[in-house]
Write a structure and sequence with these properties.
334 residues; 5-stranded parallel sheet; alpha/beta; 4-stranded parallel sheet; L-fucose Isomerase, Chain A, domain 2; 2 domains
Length: 334
């Protein structure tokens, strides 16, 4: 399950009411954020002047969080947070807390206005620090920031070409990097096949057992199952050695029936792979959905819509994880 890494700090002005309890407030927020599902790294001291802002900035540069969370303890000077953001560029969650005399909400609004003018990424949140519901939207924002960072640091593989006659599957590599972050790495099936042939029977025994366990009554021959196992291991090796976060597989019609099961096995491993059109657009959508949900994702084409039953039948070769298929069958039978 995705666990965003958050850098937490409190901002205050000691001439304002309420700053005396700032330590307890930050400890409470840190505890609540952790319970909500974040890995929280708190600054070693509260930010109230230029010196403490610089210390927080250097601390966060070392810890490398996905997102920064500023708790506006009291009304405070907006340039202090800007000092931090000049040293480490991350999306900022601004948390204002109730308090008529502290000016927390005013400080959050002022900081937000300032960052808007500077075109800096942020979002403002407000709620009682003791209530769990206050942190639900912050967690969603933090997840988005974490996924964005993973994509910016990652690469997506493209094996083969997009299928002829399926024009909507076309994509622009530069646009993928510009809009979403990941670099596109291109491979050809000859490379995959060469790697597949390096695996011996002893290497694929466990994979063969895994494949056969899906359906003990399968009529596939051992040679066919072994060929799928070798392709699976070859793609796993490519994914591992090239640090791919997902992979798009274009192989229709030449690889139809050969890579469908392979793609499904990769889905069981938590690796998004789209077969068979080489549809990079769908792979990106699948990756985002899997990261947000923490569950396998299926890309399906609509075969039939039953408005009376309020149901849709979808199907697609490959990409459906066997784990997800079992869940869907159970849900349907239930």
């Amino acid at each position: 399950m995705l666990k965003p890494k958050a850098g937490l700090y409190g901002v205050l002005e000691k001439s304002e009411e309420g700053w005396e309890d700032s330590g307890k407030l930050i400890d409470l927020v840190k505890s609540k954020l952790s319970n909500a599902g974040m890995d929280v790294i708190a600054a070693k001291e509260l930010v109230g002047d230029d010196g403490s802002a610089l210390k927080a900035a250097e601390f966060f540069k070392i810890k490398d969080p996905d997102i920064l969370i500023a708790v506006i303890v009291t009304w405070s000077f907006d340039h202090l947070t800007l000092t931090i953001l000049r040293h480490i560029t991350r999306p900022l969650a601004i948390l204002a807390v109730p308090g008529l005399k502290t000016g927390s909400l005013v400080g959050a609004q002022q900081l937000g206005c300032f960052l808007t003018d500077l075109n800096i990424e942020y979002s403002t949140f407000f709620g009682p620090p003791e209530e769990d519901s206050t942190y639900t939207p912050i967690l969603s924002y933090a997840k988005a920031a974490s996924i964005k960072r993973n994509m910016e640091k990652g690469k997506i593989g493209q094996v083969g070409r997009r299928c002829r006659g399926m024009t909507p599957a076309s994509f622009d590599e530069i646009e993928v990097t510009s809009l979403f972050g990941p670099q596109v790495e291109n491979f050809i099936w000859d490379e995959v096949e060469e790697i597949a042939e390096t695996f011996k029977n002893s290497d694929i025994e466990e994979i063969n057992k895994r494949i056969k366990s899906i359906d003990p009554k399968t009529k596939c021959t051992d040679d066919v199952i072994s060929a799928a196992a070798k392709l699976y291991l070859a793609l796993k090796k490519i994914i591992r050695e090239n640090n791919l976060i997902a992979i798009s597989l274009g192989g229709y019609p030449q690889y139809a029936g050969r890579v469908c099961l392979v793609s499904s096995l990769l889905g069981d491993d938590g690796i998004v792979s789209g077969f068979c059109e080489g549809d990079m657009n769908s792979v990106i959508a699948m990756y985002l959905l899997q990261e947000f949900s923490g569950q396998p994702v299926h890309f399906g084409e609509m075969l039939e819509v039953n408005e009376k039953e309020n149901s849709v039948i979808t199907s697609h070769c490959g990409c459906c994880s066997v784990k997800l298929a079992v869940v869907l069958i159970f849900f349907y039978r239930g």
